[in-house]
Amino acid sequence: MSNVIKFTKMQGLGNDYVYINGFASHVTDPGALSKRVSDRHFGIGSDGLVLILPSNKADVRMRMFNPDGSEAEMCGNAIRCVGKFVFDNGLCTKDTIRVETAAGIRIVRLLKDGGRVTGATVDMGAPVLAPADIPAILPEGVDKPQFVDCPVTVDGTVYQVTAVSMGNPHAVIFQQGIDELDLPAIGPKFEHHPLFPQRTNTEFVEVLSTSRVRMRVWERGTGETLACGTGACAVAVACVLNELTGRTVDVELRGGVLHIVWDKADNHVYMSGPAATVFDGELSA
Questions:
Q1: Which residue segment(s) compose the domain that 198 sits in?
Q2: Which long-range contacts (CB under 8 A, 24 or more apart) does 242-249 make?
C-alpha cells in the first residue's frame, strides 16, 4: 500500500519547489522523490524538493534537493517560502523564524500585507571569500587571498570570474549581452569546471547602474532557473568586490527582482523578496 504524502507547491520569483511537512510525513528517499516530483512532464514540475523538519537548534530545519537528486546546502528563494509555509501552517507563529540549513542557521523575518505573509527578509550570513572554503581553486599563476576577477578558461574563452560562497558556491561573471548567451551549453561547463571541486552555480551579470544589475543563473544540479536567491546575494557581493555597485543593489532576475544589502557593520548579506503558494496536493511515495 502506497504512502500518501501531502505537499504544497510554492514559488519565489518563479523559483518553484515542492514542499513537504516533515513534522507530519516521512520521506525515506528524498533524492529519488525529488527526481520524480521535479519532472515537468511526468511529475509535479519544480526546481526541486524541500523538506521542512523538526530542529533541535532552531524553529525548523530545511533540507533541499535538486532535480538530479543531489542535496544542496542552501536556497535563498526556498527559505523565504519555508518561512511562509511554517507560519501559514501553524508550525511557528513568530514573525521572525530561525531556520536550520546545511549552511547554518538563517534568520527569516516575515513580510506581511494585511496579516498575510507575502515574502521575507532573510539574514543570509556573511559571504565566504577564502577560496579553500568556497571551495574553489585559484587558476594557475594567480596568487590572491580571494578569488576576485580571476581568469578562467572555458571552451577556449577566458572569463573574468569572482567566486563567492553564500553557503553554496557561486561563480560570477560580468559581461554584456547575457540575453544572447547559450546558457544550456556554457552553464554545465562552468558547473563541472575543475576549479570548483564541489561544482558551482554560475551567474552572468550585466551592470545597469551603481544600484541595479541584471543576471541569468545556471544552478548546480538544476540548470537555468528564473531566480536564485543565494546567487543574487553572491552577485551583490561580487559587485562590491569589483567596485561596480554600492552595498545596496536590486538584482533583476528572469522571475523578478530581489533587494540585496551587504551590511558593512556586521558583514552579513540581507535578501528581501516575495514568497507565494501555488497549490496543495497529495502524492504517493
A1: 131-267
A2: 242/148, 242/149, 242/162, 242/174, 244/174, 244/207, 244/210, 244/213, 245/207, 245/209, 245/210, 245/211, 245/212, 245/213, 246/210, 246/211, 248/211, 249/211, 249/212, 249/213
pLDDT, tens only, 231-250? 999 999 999 999 999 999 99
Considering the domain architecture, whether residues 17 and 78 belong to the same structural domain is answered as yes
pLDDT digits (tens, 9 = 90+) for 68-112: 999 999 999 999 999 999 999 999 999 999 999 999 999 999 999
The two beta strands, 15-21 and 60-65, are: unpaired
157 shares its domain with 88: no
Which amino acid would we find at residue 188? Answer: P
Tell me the pTM. Answer: 0.94
In CATH, what number is assigned to the domain containing residue 35?
3.10.310.10
Residue 269 and residue 122: Cα distance in Å, rounded?
8
Do 181 and 143 fall within a single domain?
A: yes
**Same-domain check for residues 27 and 47:** yes
Annotated catalytic residues are: 75, 228
Q: Is 26 exposed, middle or buried (0-12, 13-18, 19+ CB in 10 A)?
A: exposed
In this structure, are 192 and 240 located in the same domain? yes
